[in-house]
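Tutorial, part two.
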Amino acid sequence: MAKKEVTVEQKLRALYDLQLIDSRIDEIRNVRGELPLEVEDLEDDVAGLNTRLSNLAQDITNLDTDISAKKLAIEESKTLIKKYEEQQKNVRNNREFDSLSKEVEYQELEIQLSEKRIKEFKAKIAQKKQVVDTTKGKLTQQENHLKAKKSELDAILQETEKEEKLLHEKSEEFAQSIDAHLLTAYNRIRNKVKNGLAVVSIERGAAGGSFFTIPPQIQLEIANRKKITIDEHSGRILVDAALAAEEKHKIDNLFA
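Running the prediction step on this input gives:
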């Protein structure tokens, strides 16, 4: 079935309706401001701190294992010393005695080295436990901060969720009534300008938000609604004040 011909005026009305709806969505997002990003950053911080605590706990466990291994090595050395000292009682010559004495001496050095390592490991554990305490304090602080920010964001979302959902549905609905080329131009302008206004009405002889006066002949053409007019200064699509007022009234009633 052939598609019904859409007039320029209908296109302008659809564009301005879409702009009014998208501007309402922008307002809701502005109310949220940086909160979603703040919540995301805090969630990343909390996850990072938890990972750090997990790594520190693993480090401490590994050091405890190393201490146990060194204690076991000390016991083994002590057992060997006893064994060598017993053997010294039954030696046949000085060479055997000296050889066993060296073995005893070596095991005593091994004990000293193991004891030194144990002290080092214990010092590292103490240091890591301090870092754990500091990290836990920071984690608690960030978790409380996150809870407060989430609560703030949830309150805003709860207040605006229903309206925003409806606005998005209407935005998609109105966008479908605009041809692809025009919709692409609208989105391109909207993404380019700071306040997201791609379609503006003429106010006091100038485009809304602009100080450049539009020549009377161009204003007349806009009022006739026979072609799409782009403001040469701001690059925005222009509509006449009467059409803008009518569509604003229609959209206000739609969401009342």
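DSSP finds six helices and four strands in the chain. In part three we will examine how such features are distributed along the chain.
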